Amino acid sequence: MRTSSLTVGAFLSASLCAAALADGTWEVLAVADGATPAGLPGIDGAVWVPNTWNNPTIGLDGLVSFRGQIAGAGITNTGATANHLVLVKGLPGAWTVLARNNSSVPGDTPAGCIISRTASPNNSIVSANNITDDGGVVLSGFMTGPGITVGTNDTATWFQPASGAPVLLAQGRDICPGTAGAQYPANMSVGSGLRMNSVGQAPFYMALTGGDTNGTINNAALVLIGPGDDQLIMRKGDAAPGLAGFTVTPDSFGSFLNGTKIAFSGKLVGTGITTANDSVYLTNAGLTGGLRIYAREGDAVPGFKGLTFANTSSFSFGQRPIADNGTITFVATLGGTATTLNNSAVMTEQNGVFSILLRKGDAVPGITDSTDPNFAGKVFSSPNSTGNCMTRNGLFAFEGIIMNADGTSIVSPAPATFVGARLANGTLVTICRQSDPVPGLSGWTFNSLNGSTSICANDLGTVVFNASMANTTAGETGSVIMAWDEALGLRILAKASALSTTPFTPTGDATFTGTPCNQISLIGSTGNNGDGGGTGFSSNGWLTLRAADTVSGLYSIARIKVGPNGNACPADVNGDGTVNAADLAGLLAGWGTSSPDLNGDGTVNAADLAALLAAWGACP
Question: Mutual orientation of helices 581-589 and 606-614 as an angle, nearest 10°?
């Protein structure tokens, strides 16, 4: 049954639901039900169209940015006049529209142009899903206007800094720096995964045409686009640093940025080069200018006698592989004296010095020494190739895979996955294991914890991930957003029911949509910026997500402050800084439900009322 806009509106006025007592409270920022006003300035009466949002992003200031579609009087979604697509940033009551189709391009550059894509208006603004630490937003899309030719120079990327006017970064057919007239490709729009830093710079791989382009010899480049002059990082056919007689072709994927530090991969070209030794890994970290090759496929691993970087596969990189100090984290397949029992490792490199953080065959606390026969004697195999994240303070969070001690894979349905963390001091922690009970949910256990958790971590030492779960007795499935840190341990932030064709008891939170949600989505492995931080989970603990009850067609975007001291005043239900009659009314309205549960026991009751009255007055 569809929830009325009145119900949703009443919920928004309360706006919050207590999560775990130590964390903050969920704030619903936007509701898409086709009826609740979007609250966008200058667009009176507009409502969000259900199921049209991309993943929201959030900066250190807690402001959220996302793209979506609107409907209402004077709004159309077809043809050349479509004006239904917007990119916004802010909070309820203070949204800023950064871009809208059939409105001027950001900063009116190029002059007189509008954002428009007649053939595909829903994509006239590209969902770049990126925000810098300080709140700068990437904008990208298609345009029409003076001097614009469709399919030639009608795409562009802009940057809206945290303060000040937006700037044009790149446009189709711009001249590539460091070349004699070679041009950027026609399509200069950017999508998810672009790593923009707070200056407005981002590495961008592109094909080149015209000018001094010579067939396939030099027809591609990796460029650092940004305000002012772009910078050529490497062009296809450039000399390989430190390897005379060889050239490099930069790869079209896997380019990473943290401030001014760049890391990327490429392929060598030259006499004697084969698929066994052609992959190289380059960075400018540790240099005052230029690039260096810090590792090559088939070479010996410096500092580890007998080990080589095996030629069976290239390195894989997690979400934020390059740290502030230039340390690069990667997963490598090892050769030489390595065997099938220990031939892969999570490694780091800093200025030529290599370290092994985790290696295949290592013991895992809570698994190798477990009394549970499902885990006893099992050892570490590998992390998920992209489901891992190194924070700036040295915490390595990962989705882990375990194996039998003899190196054989664990046969399904036996549990073979876990979520773990390696602390900065080297301590290995098992956060949770596949088949473990879900804390606080009787009868529920974790399903596989590999490949779909959207794991993220921040500089405060908090790890957040989305885990699937099951209640086999009840025949139900669902998912939970979990948080973990050393101080507070493992706890649930939100939960969702799975869709079912048979009657079942909904387990999803009603926090977000007023009805039990069946979808909760984190931004995933693309949620990283060029400042070394996350875009869905900020370095100071702000987390944002999408939640939905697709049965009733209700969708929402919400945020929460996660981590120790995330909520110093849980009795402040409406978040206005004072515990007063409004908070009492909100608590009484939720009596007997799970919201707002001040003490985290799952029910709003007399204990919560006592806690609220004891905290009456200004929050500390």
Answer: 170
